[in-house]
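Class prep. Write one:
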Amino acid sequence: MYCYNVIEKPLELRNPPKAERHDELKGSEHITALTLSLTLTLKPLQRLLSIHTTITLFSFLLSFSSSLLNTVMSQNKNVSLERSAPQQPRPSNVYVGVGGSDSLCISPKRDHKSENYEDLQLEFNPLVFSSLEQYLPPHMLNLSREVKVQYMRNILLRYLPESERIRIQKHKEYRQKIMLNYPPLHREIYSMDAEKFFTPSFLRAIKENTEESFRSIMAEPCKGIYTFEMLQPRFCEMLVSEVDHFERWVHATKFRIMRPNIMNQYGAVLDDFGLEAMLDRLMSDFIRPMSRVFYSEIGGSSLDSHHGFVVEYGINRDVELGFHVDDSEVSLNICLGDKFSGGELFFRGVRCDEHVNSDIQPVENFDYYHVPGHAILHPGRHRHGARPTTSGNRINLILWCRSSAFRELKKYRRDFSSWCEECKRKKKEKERLLVMATQQELMKREMQSAS
């Protein structure tokens, strides 16, 4: 997550994490968009791997350098699953992996129904395999699940550095240890129960699933920012007490807890103690339908992973939150309570990486006042922060929704004028100057013709 200084002009980054640094990508310009569902779709990798590491993971697999492939394939004599199948001309959309031992299709087979891998103990999140399966060679799609998962696992493990593999395994063990020992207080919130969690108006809008139904429950106080009533009071109370119960358990057992991000010293990652599946449903069944309508240009229709957590502000807690952008395509922020004063969110415009420190335009200033049970939905790249909570305690549920496809495509684009306000402003200015230059040239030619 980027952090910005809200006092200095222009804003300056304070130690942006490696996962967001693009200066490391200069040697990887030839990597193609083939990696769409193979890289940041890896949910457990998204918080642990840098973009550079993820690219390294697949760069050789998906490079189109024929000289490299010819050299590697001539040296590699391993027999693959694919070679064991009857030899036949390779479809034009199939790309051969390193050594020819594995292959993936350039385009996914969207109408193929992927297997469910939830019951398997794997190094990667089961959704990774479900997504990757659509890119398998046609002759593999109807093979047994065991054969397919081994094939995909070989691809993933081959290009994953040993150090990162160890980090992933340790985080997996960390979660498993918590879930084996932590006694939940409210088990009913660990699985989605829409009727008990959400307000009737929100459920009706989701059921109708149209732009009109969504807008009927929403306000849009600032361009691209939507607010609406979402959670029932009882669910808010149970979630707050569950987090409090978890923190008390952590303190009593002296268990090390991972905080939500580098900016918040208080709060908890909900995914770490069993709520990941419920939050997955929240994103896929309730947030993605709305994002598909309102945020299609920033990956809203392809949200495929999340980071869910609770933050706490007030006495003996975090007081405020500095100016920053979220590590998400779409962010959901819901106030859970309690009684408090202050803590308003302030928004200052959507920006791409290049223009994240650009000046704030007057029209971009917007302040949001929290209401318990009410949600605010906004682009993750919308620069924002939180003012000090002056009294009481404020607790918010945050869901960072991410799109691996959008992130991968973004690396090969330079024009983000469809959503970055600074790109849009510069593009309009460039067009204005071009029109002016064209007009001057035409006038010059007319004058020359007249003379």
About this structure: The two ends are 63 Å apart (CA to CA).
